[in-house]
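Quick one - first record:
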Amino acid sequence: MPAARPAPSLLIALPVVRAAALCPAAAAAAPRPASDRTTRRITVTVPPSTRADATPEGDWSEQADSAACDALLRCWVRETGLPVPDAGPATIDLPASGTRLEADVAYRSQAGFHRFGSVRFPSGQPVSSVTLAALLVTESVAARGGGPDAVTELVARVSDSTRRIASFLSSRAVTAGDPGRTPFLEAEQALVLGHPLHPAPKSRIGLTESEAGRISPELRGRFPLHWFAAERSIVAAEGDAHGWLAPFAPETPEGYVAVPAHPWQARELLTRPGIARLLAGDALRDLGPHGPQWHPTASLRTVYSPGERVMLKLSLGLPITNSKRENLRVELRRGVEIDRLLDAGLAAELARHHPTFGIVRDPAWLAVDPPDGTGRPESGLEVVVRANPFGPADRVWCVAGLLADRPGLGGAEITSVLDTLAARTGKGTQDVAEDWCARYFDAVVAPVLWLYRHYGLGLEAHQQNTLVVLDDEGRPCGGWYRDNQGYYISHRRAGELERLLPGVGTAGDNRCADEVIDERLGYYVGVNNLLGLVGAFGSLAGCRERPLLELLRERLRSFADLPLATALADAATLRCKANLLTRVDGLDELVGPLETQSVYCEIPNAFAG
């Protein structure tokens, strides 16, 4: 890593609170509401631990700045088509500012996961991530006719993200995970750098340092839920939300319902006029923190407690990557509708054809209605109840966490998996990687394509929404999909789903044209998931990317009757989400028509060579 690159100031590393619960083995089938069963909790208190190999003197701000520059440059290369040479520096001309930059190429990735060395002006003066962001965004704004506010907003996000990454790396260098942490939780909290192709993956403007210590997965935070009591007349719900929440909910006065909230959201809600009116009129009462400790997962707002049979997806009004993360009513309805569709026969069909793949259920939701005059259907107190099918010994990994780079902290978990497999089998790392990718496609991606081919149901299976199950030796042997937001139902091919659940896709407002679904799944499944996998194997594990791309291309061709798979295998270019331009345009991916929520660009198809 280049020593010449100047770095932003380092945030003070925050105290890290340790995990404290182990969960009983989960049933293979989706669990039923708490009112139908007896819940058993096993709690083990574990003190904070310190890494024996801690290096607190490490310059983590420099590591963070290097990672931020890499992410910005990857975005720029992908979204502009800038050539990346095999050797020597890449040259970036920026006519809007009359500037030229040079970036040393440390690794050129066919899948787009390049790694860069120093970034500098032609004079040799080094360029920091904040300066790089200002120059790139100025160029983008000039080309798209935007104003200076876009530059200011995105540069602030890049600065915030970079400083937080430095804090995360510093904290991880001196603290170790607790012995009782589950593989699921380890993977959920492994994304220290965040999305490798986003300009500000860890930006959380509005979050104080003390709050970050409690609610950040990267700092292994934990917290009790904050609870409100709401009059039944202002509560909307589907499914047995009360039954699911009963084992850990506080008591409420007669006629009131217990509603959980994220602790950051609970504080912020008090500033909203609608919530203030409900509190002043006693329709809503603030009960404060209560119950067991919950751990933030990769999405920050979905929380997990190893001793509970549910996870909770809570509204969180922080701008994270490309949107504020508050649950929308249509998404709440969508999750329950898919749960009903699975119960109506789709789960049985999926199990018959792909018995090792499952969909994590969202069987219920609970929300407080805002008072009249607020101008929107959400109050900020919307909760998704998500089933937790994972036991403490299940080796189930969020794919993004498995592939996450952790510079200076032992590298990505996938490199350890491949090294262990190579040592056990006596094969080379390349052979092991090719076998791993083939198994991954069959266990995780093939079921997603099968659902779309036979039922017209698209799953937004990017790496953070995709979970892979590993066998005892580290090979993929199963998979899961999760996310109540990311279901697409084909207008043209909804007949089979209609047979199972008449009107499906109406409540969730997620019927789409095939062209829209193909674009979204082409990016999420093909580019983000599969090309991201190959890029990580190449840039982090040293594998040759071309054989992996060819292997996956042949797997895609086995779905030759599906236009999406054919396009991924053989099209000259692919549609790809442009995260830098999406941020330059100030878009919120949860607002507005599906077709216009993000900026997309064309990129060369690495599968086709």
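second record:
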Amino acid sequence: MTSSEIQRIAFEKDAVRAWAKTDPRHRNWPVVYLLDAADKNVKAPGLKEVYVGETLNAEARILQHLENPDKKRLLAQFRVVLDDRYNKSACLDLESHLIRLLAGDGTYRVLNRNDGITDSNYYDRELYRESFQDVFEQLLDEGIFSRSIPEIENSDLFKLSPYKALTTDQAVAVESIVEGLFDDLEENIGELLIVQGEPGTGKTVVAIYLMKLLADIKASRPDDEPDADSIFSDFFTDGHRQLLTDFRVGLVVPQQSLRKSIQSVFKRTPGLSPIQVLTPFQVGVSDEPWDLLIVDEAHRLNQRANQPSGIQNRQFIDITTKLFGADDITKTQLDWIRARSRHQILMVDPAQSVRPADLPPNLLRALVDEAKADGRHYPLVSQLRVKAGEDYIGWVRSILRPGLPDPDAPPPAPRNFEGYDLRFVEDLGEMHDAIRERDAEHGLARLVAGYAWEWKSRNDPAAFDIELDGRQLRWNTTATDWIASKTSLEEVGSIHTVQGYDLNYAGVIIGNDLQWDEDAQRLIVDRASYFDKKGKENNPTLGRVYSDDELLRYISNVYAVLLTRGIKGTYVYVCDSSLRAHLRRHIGTSGTT
């Protein structure tokens, strides 16, 4: 059998027909092809647009593309990947593989729709995937890619890309949501939907995928060839396109860092725009309503509370007055969103609420219960992040659960998670060194911590914030895209810079804000050791004074989020000696060092 070869041909009818005559495989063999905007006389052209496809008849398919005026205008040549070993399944797999990597590489824009991305098993799949590496290396040499596969897969552009193969529960949610949305549009009904999932189940993936899918349906043409392998192909109809005419969609992201990362993805994605990624305040002040607002991390929307700045406090009053005729202090940012849009989709996990200003737990529970009762609740359960398995998230939350243990429930059993590097570390310097080693090996290894140290370096760059075991460290020097910043490996990230992101390895520092009362056999909070001012301040506007138990719930949520960032492993350093001894009892000996 021959190895994969890549042939380059001008994107012109005469050139295609002449090429097709040189080999019978050009008309009757499964192939993968790329259409790009390269100058064929330049080896590393720096592409602007690229399209990836698969077909059993390369000549006919390329000639069909030439009938599309947009592709004929944008694209200059095509490359065909030929391999005597390929079959239809292998080509579908390679096509999806290249689309995902091209979108994550970020050098140029992928023109494909996202509804045809697959991740299906087939005979000898692993053998074929070994050959995909050869194809990638050839394309890298030709300038199609600018980074290695590990570099691409560690990037936000890859992790937040709309070009994902959905899990079964994600696909069911997307299909049901879109089908219901079109039904509601035909009936002129507005509704609120809930997508609920624990960390790593892909809530953000679903939000971004929906944005792209709706944009693709809206932009599709009647003569587009349907993708028979896509469960979403039935949505690409004239009737659905008409329903989306002038349809205004926005993605609301409360967290600054995550919002900036998603805007970078949208900038490189046809049909999407960074201006569609919004703050709750932007929604509130806008004079033009939205047809649909999708809210990621909706549990981080704010109720009425002291905001980070006086300007935002004034805006909260002005927006509420504008939308509801008076300054109603019971109104939340969710109320703004519902007032400014016909349809809403909320991505929620109530256990990831980390500040008192977040939407109150009783409101979130009521929304979830109402959505379940009305058939508008879509659960996500497949664990896509942590390689320890789906039960790792529940285990972490069980050992950090506030309050007294349930006398009728057995205590969490000591656990080892096979294939997952979970360990205790006694010396912070050792953990930092280990994180450096993991970063050199795999990338995306970072130290993170609860807000148990004052942010001295914010006003004094020469100061250190965390000093333990002879190691001196500073908090994150940037709030935006900290994980990818040049100094992040020598800093410590807070909950506000890492929530919503993946790491390969997380070194989690549990400070003295969270402690263990051995006599009472429960977690307790030390207010004096918790330095997130917005994380513990009372709410005089609403007449709320937060108890230690309420504060403990938020701090426990913070650490549960931090302990579920690591894909390959999590290292744990605990300051409080009693808590250290307690947590050690729940991790098997093979997970310790």
